[in-house]
Each structure stands twice: as structure tokens, then as C-alpha cells.
């Protein structure tokens, strides 16, 4: 078990014993659960994914975290976009890595979701950190980091510059499907929680989970491979489990019944129906 997890557990125990302890939030159907509500690419069911409109909507809907996908422009700017090309979500074409920030920032990243979002831009990582830190948690996914050598150092630098490399009240988590990148991120930022993403059952064996637990705090699977046994195995290794991507009430209800720690959803209201 990672040292920072042990520290976190001892802090949690202290808080539990404190007379000031209060439920963080009454989640779901009035029943108390400590399950985080993570707005996937922002509240992307209602707004254009990975834009300020989507992140503002997640804040308005009182999600606990926004999930963002980070990539890098040709000239080294960290930008928030999911696909490795701009074709699906903007009015441009081409690979993110082949376009300068000036070219990326000129694109319309809103109209694909509806005319009312025309003019939404591809945000920068710095802009998102500055606008949302302390207001909502930020789950940072390094998207295809193998395309961007050195992106881990750039992300670490931006977090350190803002003292977000030792998050306290400001909730920051870093995750990726690329495990080597996450080992590197853990070495660069030992106090920031790390997550591994997968949709492969081959990553749920006892040995695989044990290997992840050497550097990861979160095991984050697609909900199709979540079972009660998997949740128990992840917890017994001292990790948490956040699952994705909820796009129906049935999927949210399934994950409630599995007792995962966080639900990553396009629709935050499926996880917390008060909003
Ligand atoms: O946060 C989990 C989820 O974002 C992983 O898949 O493709 O939506 O980035 P994807
Ligand atoms: Ca993502």
C-alpha cells in the first residue's frame, strides 16, 4: 500500500473520531453515501464536452469533480480535448499534436453539440486549473501521453507552480490508460493520487491489482467489468475504485449497488438526483 494512502487513512480515522464530523453530502436517494460524483469531460450530456460550458455546468450541478482530458499542441501548450484529432468536436481537422495553440484556439468547440454553444473554445490546462481549483475537484486524464514525450513533466510543473502538487482541500487526481506514464507521474508528484484506467479483465487479476497498488491510489475500470469481488479486491489493497462512463440511470444504479467510491458520468443528476 502506498505511503500517501496510509496517511490518508489515518487522517480519515482522526476525522471519523472527531465530534465535528458531519456527512460530506447526502448522496443518491436521500441515503448517506460517500460516493463521488465525477462529471465526465464536464457535464457532457448537456453541454459540449471538455469546454468551459461543460465544466461550469458541472459546478452548477454540484458535481464533486470534473474529469478532463489533457493533450499538447504542436508548440507545447497543454490543451483540454478528448480525441487525438479535432475532427469530431470542432469545426477544424487534423491532429491535436500537429496544430499550434493559435490554430487550436481559433476553432469552434461548441457547435457540434448545438448552435447555442457556438464559440466555445478548446480550453488550456492552465485556464482550467486557475478557474476551478478549490471550486470543484479535478480528475486529470493524460490522454495518449505516448504521443507527447515529456507531457508528465509539463503537467507536474503547472501543478507545482500553483502548489497543487500537495493537494489538501483542493482535490486533484491524475489518471491514464498508460500505466508507465502513471508510474512516472507518481515519481514526479508523490503526494498526488494516481489512477489507472482500464476496460480489460486481464487487469483485474490478483497479481495485476497488486502491481498497480505499488504506485496507484485508484483502480478505475469501465463499468462492464465491475463486480462486487473486484470492488473488494481493490479495497483490500488500499486503493479506491471509480468507474465509467455512466450514460443511463440503470448504469448509475448498478454502480451504487457495487459500492464503488466514485461514478464518472456524462449526467451528474443520475448520481445525485437533487440536481
Ligand atoms: O474517466 C474515465 C474515462 O474518461 C475514460 O475514457 O475515453 O472517456 O477518456 P474516455
Ligand atoms: Ca477521459
CATH class of the largest domain: Alpha Beta
Question: Please, how many domains?
Answer: 2
Distance between the termini: 36 Å
Q: Tell me the number of strands.
A: 9
Query: What would CATH call the architecture of the largest domain?
Result: Alpha-Beta Barrel
**Mean pLDDT rating:** 91
Given as residue ranges, the uncertain stretches (5+ residues, pLDDT < 50) are 6-30
Q: What is the percentage of strand-forming residues? A: 15-25%
According to CATH, the homologous superfamily of the largest domain is Phosphatidylinositol (PI) phosphodiesterase
Query: What are the secondary-structure elements, in order, as H or E?
Result: HEHEEHHEHEHEHEHEHEH
DSSP helix fraction: 25-40%
Textual characterization of the structure:
This protein has ten helices and nine strands. The model is unreliable at 6-30 (pLDDT under 50). The protein has an eight-stranded parallel beta barrel, surrounded by six helices. With 275 residues, the chain is an alpha/beta fold. Strand 4 (137-142), helix 5 and strand 5 form a beta-alpha-beta unit. The chain folds into two domains: 1-32, no CATH class; 35-270, Phosphatidylinositol (PI) phosphodiesterase (TIM Barrel, Alpha-Beta Barrel). Bound molecules: SN-glycerol-3-phosphate and calcium ion. Residues 40, 67, 69, 82, 141, 197, 244-245, 264 line the site of SN-glycerol-3-phosphate. Residues 40, 67, 69, 82, 141, 197, 244-245, 264 line the site of SN-glycerol-3-phosphate (G3P). This is Glycerophosphodiester phosphodiesterase.
